[in-house]
What does this fold into?
Amino acid sequence: MIDWDRVASLRGEIGAADFTEVVEMFLTESDAAVARLLAGIPDPTLEADLHFLKGSALNLGFRHLAALCGAGEKRAAVGAAVDVAEVAESFAASRQAFVAGLGGSRAA
It folds into this structure.
């Protein structure tokens, strides 16, 4: 679910302080994007939110979430249905695993 090698690489690239800031920003912005997905915001925003989540998830090693968002983004682009509940569930599970893996703090 989480690519811990990517997490370690990112932390090494940007340093602990900036890593903490990136994680905080990702979690806050992703919470808002997932809330919009679940609220059923129209398709142009759906595609943009999925694109944002995909890129951010890849950056922080949320592999499963990134894959779901990539597939959803393609579906949204052609007007097909997207299982936003599955995306939200993946985000919640990934978030929980990520925070636990960082030692329980948001950005340990």
